[in-house]
Amino acid sequence: MDFNDTPEEATYRAQVRSWLDKNAVRKADAKDLPLPKTLEEVLKQSKAWQAKKADAGYACITWPKEWGGGGGTTIQNVIYGQEESNYAVPGGIFAIGLGMCIPTVMAWGPEDAKKRYVGPAVRGDEIWCQLFSEPAGGSDVAGLRTRAEKDGDEWVINGQKVWTSGAHYSDFGIVLTRTDPNVPKHKGLTMFYIDMKSPGVEVRPIKQMSGGSDFNEVFFTNVRVKDSQRLGNVGDGWKVALTTLMNERLAVGGSQGNADADDLIELARETEIAGEPAIRNGAVRERIANWYVQAQGLKFTRFRTLTALSRGETPGPESSISKIVAANKMQELGSFGMDLQDMGGVIRDRSVSPAEGAYTEQWIGAAGYRIAGGTDEILRNIVAERVLGMPQDVRVDKDLPFNQAPRGK
Amino acid sequence: MNFDFSDDQKMLKEQVRKFLTDKCPYSVPRRILDSDEPYAKEVWKGLVEMGLTGTAIPEAYGGLGLGALELCVIAEELGRAAAPVPFSSSVYLASEAIKLFGTEKQKQTWLPKLAAGEIIGTFAISEGLHAPSAANIKTSFAGGKVNGVKTPVPDGDIADVAVVVVNAGGKVALAIVDLKGAGLSHEVLRTFDPTRSHAEITFKDAPAELMDGQGWEQVSRILDGAAVLFAFEQVGGAEAALEMARDYSLERYAFGRQIGSYQAIKHKLADMYVKKEIAKSNAYFGAMMLNDEGAELPEAAAASRIAGCDAYVFAAQENLQTHGGIGYTWEANTQFHYRRAKLLALTVGAAIQWKEKLVARLEAKNAA
């Protein structure tokens, strides 16, 4: 066992590093650089960086070159990600479009659509969003109610989507709609791609509990799309959506800069319990040990996954545990860091709070992270069903026509 | 990145699994539980014949000259089968201790016999109902004689040789005692897991030899290595308990459907899987540090142990719970893991002790 690159991996890593050194600034040297102030600036910088990557073959590394990708392997993609994370570069804006939407267009779209949309998306000229979740369909996405009705050679879409990341700056989106309410829910769905500037599309940001706004509600009022914008057959929307969801990027990144066991040791040295440094307290020590073991467990689970990728094998199902563990740890560790500050823990001010306010921010953020992209409960279902081979829950609406299935208000 | 076992190691694992599936189904620990037999001699004999007792002993001393990684894969399978054999005492503890800290003559005397399975070894550290430490070891060594009482000693009733943690004139040291020699008596202890026997050993002027070097660090190193190997037993045991629970949940119907279709059961089993994977990933790093004698062995061993205890105890108890009433009967196999999980969570020290040890190390590193 070792953590070393294979010779090919080492060569690729060196090549990536030398390219990044020429084209980006290391995080350590970027402290004094001005941060982009407006969304426009963020978009401009992100697009410029994406185009640079595309020219060098580092955008969509695993995609064939004919589609503007890098023609590389999954492990090369991971290596690039590891190296890029050491540099101050814009990121995130294209993840959903390139990770989920464009692969769906490539798998199900007509040839002319692929030719028209894939290239500009890879270069970052156009941004895509994914319009699946609805107020009535979160974990149960197939319970969505947004209608698409045929009208000649066009479809008319009415309804509402929610939790749409990046809708406010996206140029296009893929939207899952109900085209037949008279059949069971999974059978009456159809997927389209749409221009987000179409008349009748209205994007409203959602203000989250944290105060931030990363998501949107998207309203559709008589939005007209051409039948040629359909992805897959009428009624095959669920099958198409599964392609999208399966293309979710392999979660092999590091932790997201949250406070961890090491930070807690420092905080526990500076704070007190019963007049003694908190670090001397057994309850504090036990928690530090538990979180350290969890963090190590997550790190080495990732290493097991990377090993499989490095060998060109399909990783085992072990990575499915990561978000369940990470999100809960993030919440509890944040909460405990606030407890160590005792009454002072109420303060939410990066300039005053320890670790630049990380404990409070992760405590607030984790409440959302435990839900986003699959709740703790759905993820446990997935582990039970796909990894352990246990049966699905009884689904009372499974064989009923959608318009006769029980529903709330 | 090569964070996995090699194909040869996986093949060895497969061989051990096949052997134990054939020769050590649950009827074997059941037989030991129901009788006065201290261990399953035929299973032990089979493991010896496969050469497994000499796995990590150098060829110069009659072993196979393989490493810790091979021991890890064997341990995982022994844990899966809840095998009633003295492998851990003889191999993870006695043989490893002599290999690490024995004098050349001691290695020549004992390792070939341990490798060949001609004798069984053990490690005697505990002195009663408290955690042993550098400050509280009372069993004394002076003038070539050991005096004191060690209890509980795993396999203390059947072992031929023991590495004994002693107080040698105020300093902690390791002594080798021939348990077939003079000045020794033992009493078999009543424990909650009779599939693994334990004894109280009384030393009265028992002839002994000191091993190389002195100090608690040696004891820690032996315990660190064993903790990693036991973590693999725990991972194997947790996996077996999870599979037993899964199989039962698919077979058992309540309220007109498989109980495995209820989220209360699915989520419980998913949690078992999560803990087991966290334990496995930590144990892998422990294996790597043990094999390479890496600087992070103490932290890696502690993390392996903490996660291993958590995963196996949880899996074993929730497996029994998933079975409902039948799981609490003498005839059910759930009890083997319920007992063994708790036994392994105490052998080489409870998790709370290891958490303290871990945080002390992390603190020192953090300050540095």
From TrEMBL, chain A:
Q: Name one Pfam family in it.
A: Acyl-CoA_dh_N
Top-level taxon? Bacteria
Keyword terms, alphabetized: FAD, Flavoprotein, Oxidoreductase
UniProt KW Oxidoreductase keyword:
yes
Spell out the GO cellular component terms annotated for this protein, sorted alphabetically and separated by semicolons.
Answer: plasma membrane
User: What positions does the domain Acyl-CoA oxidase/dehydrogenase middle occupy?
Assistant: 129-223
Cofactor names: FAD
In what residue span(s) does the Acyl-CoA dehydrogenase/oxidase C-terminal domain sit?
235-388
InterPro entries attached to this UniProt entry: Acyl-CoA_Oxase/DH_mid-dom, Acyl-CoA_Oxase/DH_mid-dom_sf, AcylCo_DH-like_C, AcylCo_DH/oxidase_C, AcylCoA_DH/ox_N, AcylCoA_DH/ox_N_sf, AcylCoA_DH/oxidase_NM_dom_sf, Mycobact_Acyl-CoA_DH
- All copies of domain Acyl-CoA dehydrogenase/oxidase N-terminal, residue ranges: 6-125
Q: Does the keyword Glycoprotein apply?
A: no
Q: Which SUPFAM superfamilies match?
A: Acyl-CoA dehydrogenase C-terminal domain-like (SSF47203), Acyl-CoA dehydrogenase NM domain-like (SSF56645)
Gene3D superfamilies membership = Acyl-CoA dehydrogenase/oxidase, N-terminal domain, Butyryl-CoA Dehydrogenase, subunit A, domain 2, Butyryl-CoA Dehydrogenase, subunit A, domain 3
Which GO molecular function terms does the record list? flavin adenine dinucleotide binding; oxidoreductase activity, acting on the CH-CH group of donors
Q: Which family does the UniProt entry place this protein in?
A: Belongs to the acyl-CoA dehydrogenase family.
PANTHER family the record matches:
ACYL-COA DEHYDROGENASE (PTHR43292), ACYL-COA DEHYDROGENASE FADE34 (PTHR43292:SF4)
Kindly provide the name given to this protein in its UniProt entry: Acyl-CoA dehydrogenase
From TrEMBL, chain B:
Task: Note whether Oxidoreductase occurs among the keywords.
Answer: yes
* Pfam families on file: Acyl-CoA_dh_1, Acyl-CoA_dh_N
Return the similarity comment. Answer: Belongs to the acyl-CoA dehydrogenase family.
InterPro entries attached to this UniProt entry: AcylCo_DH-like_C, AcylCo_DH/oxidase_C, AcylCoA_DH/ox_N, AcylCoA_DH/ox_N_sf, AcylCoA_DH/oxidase_NM_dom_sf
> What organism is this sequence from?
Parvibaculum sedimenti
Q: Which domain of life is it from?
A: Bacteria
| Gene3D superfamilies per UniProt | Acyl-CoA dehydrogenase/oxidase, N-terminal domain, Butyryl-CoA Dehydrogenase, subunit A, domain 3
Domain Acyl-CoA dehydrogenase/oxidase C-terminal, first and last residues per copy: 213-349
Any coiled-coil regions, as ranges? none
**Name of this chain's protein:** Acyl-CoA dehydrogenase
